[in-house]
Each structure stands twice: as C-alpha cells, then as structure tokens.
Amino acid sequence: MEDKVKKTCLVIVALLIWLVCLSGEEFSLRKADDLRLEDFHFRTADNCEIIFWSDLTSGDRNIRCQKFNAQGQAIWAEPIAVVNNPGDQNLADVVPSSDNNFIILWEEYEIDTVNQLRLQKVTSNGQSLWPQAGISLDMVYTYPQARLVPNNTGGAFVLYKCPGWGTISAQSIDAYGNMLWPIDGLLLVTPTNYINIIDAVPDGTGGFILNLRSYQSAQPPHRLVRYSAQGLIVGNDPLIPFNVFSKDECHILQSSGGQFILYQKDESGSIEFNRIDASGNLAFPVNIVYDPGTSDFVTLCDLTTTPYGGVVFAWRQGIWGGNHNLMIQKLDHDFLPLWTQSGVIVDTLGSEMSDTSLDASSNGSTWLSWYSYNEPSPAKAQVFSSEGSPLWEQGGKILTTDIARVMTFGFADRGLFFWNDENNGMDRLCKQVIGTNGALSYPPGGETVVQKLRGQAYIYDIFALNDRYITLWQDDRDGYKIYYQISDQNMQPLLAPNGVALNPVLNDEEYQVSLQATPDGKLAVLYNLQEQIDGSTVYETYLQLIDHYGERLYPGRGIHIPPQGSYGNGSVMGISGNDIYLAWMESEDGIVRQIIGQRVCNGQLMWGENGKVITSAPQLFNIEIKGIVGSYFIWETQNAEQDRSFCKALKVDQNGDPASGWTVAGSNLILDNDYDEQDYLKAGLVNDDLISFVRLSGRGAYPVRAQRLSSDGLRMWNDAGLSLSSSINYPSISDVVYGNEIAYVILDYSNDTQQALFQKLSLSGEMLLPEDGISFTTNLHNCYDADLVKFADGSYLCAYTDNDGAWIQNRDVYYRQISPNGAPMGDHPTVLCSERYQQQYIRGAIRGNKAVFAWSDDRAGIMNSETAYTGVWGNSVISSYVAIDDPLETPSVVPEISGNYPNPFNPSTTIAFALPAGGEVSLSVFNLKGQLVRTILNEAELEAGKHTAIWDGTDSTGRIVSSGVYFCALKTAGKTVSRKMLLTK
User: What is the spatial distance between Cα 442 and Cα 419, in angstroms, rounded to a whole number?
Assistant: First the structure.
C-alpha cells in the first residue's frame, strides 16, 4: 500500500513538473524591420494623394497606405493595412478604377518565388470592397512580370509573364472581384523566354494596349498589340510598324484626347517622340527628335505627361571626370520645346546622381525633386513656372540632408513631397509641403509620418549576471555596432527597447572579439573598432566592462588594448578571479614573433602600458594565439617548412611570468608524432587545471583528443591525451560543460545522416558513457551550433538548430534534455521555435533549473538568397528532470505531433501524433499564409495514445498542392499544437 501511494505521489509530482517544464513564452530582444516607401500612388477625385509603404512590423511584409490632402495633412486617423496577410507581400501595381476607387495588385512571395498574385479594390476612404484577403489568381510563378490595367466597368485586367513557361497571359476582373476569363488566365503571347512586358495602358474603349520588348536578335525589338475587353487582338498586329521606333525599347504613355505618346531614347542622348490613337494611326509621319546638345553622356532620368498633351522630362549630362548638370525641358503637344532649346539647368551635381521625381500641375507649373549619391547628398526640390523659370533659389530647396528617394506631387500653389531616409538608426517616412513662394509648411528636414527601427542584428551571446541576463548582438541600424540588452528573470527588457549601443556617440564600426562573465556578476567585452583617420582605415582594440544594471564601468570607449592596434592582431581574453587577462600578437614581415599579454585589475593596466611578452616564437616557427582560459595562455606553434603544428599552453602568475613549475616555452597539450598538425578547439578550467580539446590531422584521420593539464604543467591524461572516438573520423566538439564531470556534445558527420551525441569524462580521464557517446538526435542535415547547459538538478539540456534537408533557409530550434546519467529524456527532441525561415546561432545561459536561449532569427523575411531581415529572439526552458527510485515515464498533458515521415515528402506523408486523453480530435493542414488546405480529421473520436494519419498532398477539392512549407495542426480538448512539413517535387 505504501509503495502504491508513493508511486501515485511521484506520478503527480512528475505531472506538475512536466507542466512547469514546458518552454516559456517567446520573447524578442531586437526585432528586424524594414520601412519601404512604395513607388505607387493614387490621386483621388477630391484632389488628395494616397501613398503606400510596406514594413515588417507584424513579422511579415505588409502593405499600408494613408491619404493626404494638398496641405500634407493625413485624412485618416490611422494608416490602413490594405494588405495584412501572413507571409511577404510585394506591391506590384496600383491603378484608379473607372468608378473612382482604386485597385491594388500585389505578389505574395517567399524569397525569389512568387506564390500568388492577389488584388484588392479600395475606396478613396480606405474601405476594402473585396474579401479581406483579396482576390487570388491562384498561380505559382517565379519572377512574374505583372501589370494592372483598369477597364471601363470598375474592374481591371491583370497581365503577367512567367519565365518558366515564357507565356504572357491575362485575367479580367469585374467590379465585384469575379474572374471573367479561364481560371488559368487567357493566353495572349505564346511561349518565348525572350519577350517581356514593358508597358500596358487602357485603350479607352474597354480594352488595353500591351507594349512588348523582344531580347532575341532575330525578332523586332518591340511590339505594340491592342486587345479588346474580351482579350482578342484588335486591329493590326503589331499596332504600328516595327520600323517606326528602331531602337531596343519604346515606351507608351496615356495622353489627353484618347491619344498615346510613344518615346524612345537614342544612344546619343536624343529622344524620339510620336503620338498614336487607339487604332495605331501616327500623328507624325516622321518621329520628332529632341536633341539635348553635345555632351560626353546624356542619361534620361524621368519623363511624365502634362495635362495638355505634352511631356516634361529631366536628364543628366556632363563630361567624363567632371561635374554633371541636372537638366529639365518641357515640350508642347507637338513635341516642340516650350523652354530654352537646350533645356534649363536645375542643379550642378557631382559624379553620381541617382533619382528624380517629376509632376506637372494643371496650372502649367512643374515640380521636381532629386538626390545625389555624393556626400554630402541632400535631397532637393524645385518648381518651374510655365515659362521655365525656377521659382526658388538656384539649386533648389533642401528637403533632407540624408540620401532619400523622393516622391513629388504638384498642386496649383504648392508641392507635396514624401521620402524615405535613415536617421539615428531609424527608417523614416517623411513629408514636406513647400509653397510656390518657397515657404515650408513643416520644419526643415520634414515631418515624420511613420518610423521603424531599421537594420538587422546577429546574436553574439547571452549571459546570466546575478539575477539578470545580458544579451549582446551585432547591429547595423546605424553602421556595424555592438548593442546589448539587460533583462530581468522573466526576460522583460530593463534598458531601452531593442537594446542600447555599447558606444552610443561613435559612428565607427565595432566587432566583438571575446565576451566573458566575471565571478562578481559583470561582463567583460573585448572588441575591435574600425576608425577612419586622415582617410586611412585604422583598427583598434578596446576592453569594456558592463555590470548587471547595464552600466559601462570604463569611461569612453573603454581601455585601449594594445597601444598600436591592427586588424589581424588576434586579440583574446580570459578571466581569472575578477582579473582580466588579455593577449595579442606582434608580427615582423608577416610572421608572428611574439605573444604580448596584459592583466587588467580594477580597471588598471598591471603590466605596463604596452603589456608584457608572454612567449616568443622559436627559430623557423610562427606562433598564433588561440585563447586564454583563466591565466592559461594557449597558442599554436607552426613550422611551415616541415608542415607541422603543436598546441601549447602556459600558466602565468599575476606578474605575467611563468607560474611555478612552468617555463616560458610552455607545455605541449598533446605529444603524438603520428600526426603532423594539431588544431586547438576548446578549453575550460576545473579546479585550476586546464581541460582542453585538440584535433589532430594526418594520414587521412582527424581524431579529437582531450587533455587535462595540471596547474604545474603536467599532462594528466598521458602524453598523447585521451582519444574521444574511434569510429567517428571527423568528430566536432560543439559545446562543453566543465565540472567534476566534463560533459560535451559531439556532432558526427561521418555518415550521410548527421547525429549529435552526448558524452561525459571523469577527472581521471575515464569515459562515463559508451565510447562514442549516446545519440540524442539523429537525421540531422546541417547542425553546427549545438549549445549545452547543465541544470542545478544535475541534468543537461542541448539546444541546437537544424534545417529540414531540403531548403537551407528552413532552419528551426530544437532541444533535448538529458538525465544526469546520460539518458535522453522523452521520445524525441522538442521544437523550441519553428517560425518561418532561419533560426540559428543559438546561445544559452543557465540559472538554477531554468535555461534561457537566444538566437538570430529571420522570421521577418528574406530579401534575396544572400540577405535576410534578421532579429534576435529567445525562449526559456525549465528542467523536467525528476530524480525518483522507480523508473517512471512522465505523462504528457498536451497533444503532441511526433513528426511526419518522410519529411520532406512527395506526394504523401504519415503524420504521427499522441493524445493525453481520449476525445474529439481535429487534424488539419495549413499553408504558410495560415490558409486551410485540407482537413484530415474533423472532430474524430479517438482514444488516448499514439495515432497516425496520412496526408496525400491534396487540398479539400482533391487538387495536388504546390511544393512548399505546410503546417499540420492537431486540436483536442481546447489545445492546439502544430508542426512544419515540407512538400517537394
């Protein structure tokens, strides 16, 4: 009876601890964001402008808009999220509809792949008229070229090209969002990879004119085709003869009176113009040519139509190696100059000028903005009268002193300007209104409409300092700098949101070298600073100390180490007591001759201003400092002639001299002549002895050895060290926990399927687990950052990241707890974070039985194959280990998806799940946008225990779904869990 009561109590205790051990609430230390002013805008019937921007605030790129009157005042109380769907959205086009609303076309994409084209119709008051998620064209295209053309019935035509098939197709949408043509679109141009859409305009009778360009030398360079409202070719094909415009690219613009302007730039810089009606009839038998005059080069910057059928355009011209002039000209309906024949000088620029924005007002005035890449690079604006006279001072008005792309909107008596700029680490959307008299409506530099934290962040590490945590990362919000955050025990930030800069007043680039916590709860930060002095790049090294309140304890940049810094001096740091030991290398003719050391005590340099020589290279040898552990200096000696290297260590006293029992030459960590090279991996202290790990190489083998070096320099685990593995050819020691038992994680790459193993050593050099360790996770694909921590209860936890084997950007965070005797707990690793894209470089800190982890996180999106919007996120895990006499399986109180196999899969996969209790169960599949794809189980009655279900890769209509990432969601008893799956074809 007593045993039964005891076991029941243990079950209850285990259940309670299991409830507690569930991972905590995820937190963000530094979110990534990106504010982007979009190119599109919409002039409403009440003479207001609606502008668009996108940001990553919600973790997905979404599109927002706001309506402004001519005075720059926002009409809506808050910006409207026109597109607020899961995933990334790219605004492709915005056009006014014939019923005084506007239609938006956007792409839903992942990195370089567009998954869908969607549309939404919005009133001038910001109300969506079609379903909230928009109208989907339900297509999967990579790099589509998409254009939107309004029709005469309140809808629009969507024109698009898919390079994979090379077709140009279209879809017709009516005023209510219904698709009028076949679900896969109407084929307009047969497959060819050499034709792109250049322009598309409504033809004035309900159809559209499509402007195509051919990149195939055997084909004419351009082609205009007119289509009816039913998608049929109208009139001639091509609409005008090929030889009217003989150059590579011709553009078409809608003009007044139902006519269209055609123009083309010549290599010499001249511009050819003509005009057609909807039937393709030319207004001029010969193109009208505007020649800007003689220059080394002429670059057309911007061109737009005027309300009276003419055009106004800006260009850059100049001589090679000299200054450039920004010019402007206005042509009448017959393309004759209205201003001075050679144009009007707007501004004199340096060698580079990036962008201009033009707008022609109904009263004849012309508004222009521009900016240059040269520094200083102010964005400027100017207004010209109908006669071509600038109304403001020469060179125009400065809008902002930052590099900024400006959008210009001209009204009768004022200009409205919007731009993106970067200021104090923020992305800002700003506005300014300037009257024709030059009066500014807002302060110089403009007024901020919206701002977001800019840039990306990459984690360095996280530490427990007394009762708090400190996390450090590399941040590029205002250049490459080090930022950090102090958090309380619940990971609530105690400093400014998104962290504070290590050096708030500096603009120089910073890179961490080493981070180490001191026994009295401070963090030593050794970092490099890249400065520009008299036009040259200079690298310096500094030491800073931060307490658990976040205060920097050394003034200014910190302690300058060494006096003459260099980029490749290999600075390292170690902590012994509360003393900080530093080392760097001094070279001669590219060969490192000496290792210099320094001890810092209470903020003072103890070994002189320039440090002290720790060791020198033997004749014909090169030395390289690898690390400091406590007061042990560790380096490699290399003999290039014999292609041999050795790892050595030297313990020093407080004066920098060899400690008792040591010589200045140090002690070899490993003595083994069967291997030519030794690479230092890791080291730590146990009872003032140095525990080190070294990789050997030679004869096609790469074993790892461990060594215990006593405080008097003796090798305790024989001269050759302790061999850690006999069956793994190239083991990688990912992380080590040092103590009375040395525990470490081995990553095994020897087979096609990577695995992670756990092993422990006694201080006498005995392996406490089977020789190769105990595998706690298998089927890894690319794990390189496993982090091991030890709880106060004696158990361990290894957190790591791994991708799914099919897509390198799809990397998640996992963990597995390990009992004190080395037994993996639970049936399989637990997912700590499965947000989209990459989570990597996980780092952990431990306090008692709670572990806090932080990592670099790309959930905000990936710009392209090389650049992501990376933030720093984290979570905590509390130990679930229960030490009991009787073996006991901890019961689960939540439903669990064990996984799906195979994964990746094609076309079907088996989903394994477990239920803590019987009841109604629903199992569904969703796509990345959160849309329901298929319901596999709908409130099915199942018993407690393990179950499986099969998904055949089809949606609810039986159609085979496209390749990509999907989620299976299990719901029962009010609880829902999900897991990521990957379908590949």
Answer: 14
Residue 259 tokens, joined:
């006519």
Using a pLDDT cut of 90, give the percent of the chain over it.
Answer: 65
- What is the torsional sign of CA 227, 233, 236, 238? positive
Q: Which residues pair with 397 in a beta bridge?
A: 381
Whether the Cβ atoms of residue 439 and residue 402 lie closer than 8 Å to each other:
no
DSSP secondary structure code for residue 243 in this structure: G
Distances (CA, A) of 172 to 161, 185, 207: 15, 8, 10
Beta bridge partners of 299: 316
Cα gap 129→806, rounded to integer Å? 40
d(CA 191, CA 188): 10
Pairing status of strand 850-857 against strand 839-847: antiparallel
Percent pLDDT > 70 in the chain is 92
**DSSP 8-state code for residue 8:** H
Element (H, E) at 18: helix 2-21
Rounded Cα distance, 720 and 646, in Å: 12
Distance separating alpha carbons of residues 74 and 66, to the nearest angstrom: 7
Residues 131-164: tens digit of each pLDDT: 988 999 865 555 567 899 999 999 999 999 876 6
Spatial CA neighbour of 636 closest among 677, 601, 675, 596 = 677
Given a contact cutoff of 8 angstroms between Cβ atoms, the answer to whether 379 and 419 are in contact is yes
- Pick the closest to residue 613 from 595, 631, 635 (CA basis): 595
pLDDT digits (tens, 9 = 90+) for 112-121: 778 889 999 9
User: Is the distance from CB of 831 to CB of 979 less than 8 angstroms?
Assistant: yes
The beta strand positions in 488-551, using DSSP E, are: 500-501, 509-517, 523-533, 536-546
Asked if 856 contacts 850 with a C-beta cutoff of 8 angstroms, the reply is no
- The beta strand positions in 137-179, using DSSP E, are 141-142, 145-150, 156-162, 167-173
Q: 3-state DSSP: the chain helix, strand, coil percent, rounded to 5?
A: 0, 55, 45
Domains of the chain by start residue, with CATH: 1-30+783-891 (no CATH), 301-452 (2.120.10.10), 893-983 (2.60.40.4070)
What the block records as the tokens of 416 is: 């409205």
**Cα(590)–Cα(622) distance, integer angstroms:** 10
| Total length of the chain | 985
Q: What is the DSSP letter of 879?
A: -
* Coil vs helix vs strand at 866: coil
Q: What is the mean pLDDT of residues 293-312?
A: 90
pLDDT at 376: 61
758: left (phi over 0), alpha (psi -120 to 50) or beta: beta
pLDDT averaged over the chain? Answer: 89
775: nearest Cα among 705, 828, 820: 828
Whole-angstrom distance, CA of residue 695 vs CA of residue 724: 10
643: closest CA among 677, 678, 675, 619? 677
pTM > 0.85: yes or no? no
Which segment of 22-26, 182-186, 489-493, 518-522 scores lowest on mean pLDDT? 22-26
Q: Per residue in 693-717, pLDDT tens?
A: 999 998 778 899 999 999 999 999 9
Q: Does the CA dihedral 427-428-429-432 come out positive or negative?
A: negative
Q: What is the rounded distance in angstroms from the CA atom of residue 889 to the CA atom of residue 940?
A: 27
Rounded to whole angstroms, how far apart are CA atoms 861 and 870? 8
Contacts of 405 by beta carbon, 8 Å cutoff, 6+ apart: 37, 354, 355, 357, 371, 379, 419, 420
- The sign of the dihedral angle between the CA atoms of 500, 506, 511, 514 is negative
- 814: Cβ contacts below 8 Å, ≥ 6 apart: 777, 799, 800, 801, 802, 829, 830, 831, 832
Instruction: Kindly state the tokens that stand for 584.
Output: 């760097």
Give the 3-state secondary structure of residue 2.
helix
**Terminus-to-terminus CA distance in the chain, angstroms?**
60
